[in-house]
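Limitations
The structure tokens in this dataset are predictions for the assembled complex, not deposited experimental models. Users should treat interface geometry with appropriate caution, especially where small molecules or nucleic acid strands are included. An illustrative entry is reproduced here so readers can see what is and is not provided.
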Amino acid sequence: MTATARLPSPELRRPRTVLVGTLFASAAAAMVYFGVLALYVSRRAEARALGVEWFPEGVVELGPSGWIFWTLIMSSFTVQWAVQAIQNEDRPNAYVALGLTMLFGAAVFNQMWFILNDTGFSLDGTEAQFLFFVLNGTFIAFLILAMAFLLLTVLRAMFGQYSPRQNDGVPAAAMFWHTVATMYWITWIAVYVTK
Amino acid sequence: MTMTESPPSEAAESTEPEAAVPGTGLYDALTTSDHKAIGRIWLRVGLLLLTGVAVLGVPVALEATSADSVDVFGGANAAWQMNGLYNVALVLLVVPALTIGLATIVVPMQVGSSNIAFPRAAAAAAWGFVVGAAIMVVSVFAGGGWGALDGVRGEEADAIELTLLGMGMVAASILLACICLATTVVSLRTPGMGLMKTPLFAWSILVSASVWILTLPVLIANLIIIVVDLRGGPLVFGNPEASTMIYDQVHWILEQPAVFVLGIPVLGIIGSVVPVVAGTRHVAHAGLMAAIGAAGLLAVGGWSQPAFSDQRDELLFVAFGLLAVVPVLASLGLNSLTLAKAGVPAGLPPAQLLGALGAGLLLLLATGAGALRVIAPLDLIGTDADAAVGRLVAFAALVGLAAGMWFWASKIGGHALSNAAGLGVVLDFIGAGVLMGAAHLLIGFDFDSGLNETMAWIVFVGAILAVLGAVGVVASVVSARRSGTDPGDDPWHGHTLEWATSTPVPPGNFVGALARVTSEAPLLDAAEQGSSDEEGASS
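Predicted assembly:
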């Protein structure tokens, strides 16, 4: 032990490819979503400029969408809790945090489904209804992707693939989760608050 | 081999025999995770598409010579569809396939990595592209496309959806390949290679991949909306009956500033070829990196689609159009200074040098035409000037890619390509680009109907030159494979790490660990160190 203790430590080379790859993938996912959102906002602005009513008054309520907003804020904390826990080799906390995040994700999915049914919109209705469906449908697709990524991370953590020094999968899943949450926060302001 | 810490003989012995012999069958191609094999899939598909698209360009150009007397496709709608296919395929199929193919092979070696990041995702991207391109092309011939001038009949609406699905698959595949390439440059650089010491081709790929990552998803967003609209929406965005509506919705990807992304790797290829031919370092490596980065910033284009802005009045659009010339000019200027520092070699120029310089000049013409196009009083937007910019950029990319293929031929396929054939190919593509670009631009000005007809015939001549160029590339590759000329490990006395490995490149690229890199030209460092050691020993 004394001989090896005197040796210089090897150069740490940890490429973090998963994290960097997820960063690029998150950017791409965000651009898909914001591409749809931008089209929604620009068409709404055009309709307003022409004096056309976008949504009938009181159809899209702020309450349920606000619950999604707060649920996603809580989920962002829990997913960061998982990152912290896995870096400290605290697996029980990591499992609880990842499980809670998944639960919040399921709650958001449920609430989103409620909103789509509650509005009574149809896909082949007006342009506003159609774009509302596409926007929320795209968000649901990315939410499912983020939950699948988290599930994969949970499974890999359970099979002991992550350590304090090599745990890129968890922060990567967290990064994608934050991206999806950010998509909704911006949507909440652009679509639900400023109807 | 100077850059590896263990001699090749030792490493060759330590390599497992089954890994050392890459397979060539379909099963091996489908299951490979070696970046060189994946890159060759992209290149083969790219060359096939290049030939097909170049051939398609001839009747498309002939049809445009005189719409009344020449009816090549049997109707205005079919002609419009084929013109659309030609435009989309050139920008979204041919150039990306060849660029990603070349980058997938060269970039990991340039940054000193044993493989590309996420090799299975990279392979999935290649095969996804093949399937998407096939769906897109076949569906257009089956009555699909991006709308219909004469209204949609029967199953044509399904074929249109199929075209959009194919286009989406192509865009998603390019996106996935870009993520793999960008991650390789960011994460897998060899020790000592900071971002500012990244070879220029690898840097240009990082920049163009980043631009594509910001741009292609916006196209995918457009396609999602159109397809959902077609499948049950109120037909606001995807109404195939409304003649060219779908094409108009996605056409921005073929126009400036988005189309300029095709030219960014060209700047990287020029920057890689010039110092090697000159046998010296770049006078301003950092300046070239900045120019390439600026070109990337000015090629981000999702925002410029007609749905978001009226291009004619948009100040940002005009500024992007005018400024795009600057980084190209800066890059060409700095490369010229490097050449001037060492002096241009006498005799017949190598194909890669002629190609690199020709590509640079075509790119300058493209950005120049783009700058003219955004000047509102000239009223060029929506005219043939749109096609002029697209053709000039696409052919600049093709010339640059031909230069890259000739330069890195030994690392791509293990064989050298004929220099004479390379010069012919490069001149063909330069001729095609100049003729088509200039003629379309003049048609855009609409000076005189007689002149327009003459210009349409010049476009036709350009299309024939493009076919000759495409056939020339394929013939050169086939001929090189048959002749099997051994080019040696480092035929050009290269400066970057891809030249430190043997030819053909072994699995894992490098035998033994690479020495720490200290500059952007590690092999030149090693050569200079060797000469100074020899001088020291002799004195």
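Some entries come with short summary sentences. For this one: Chain A has a mean pLDDT of 88.
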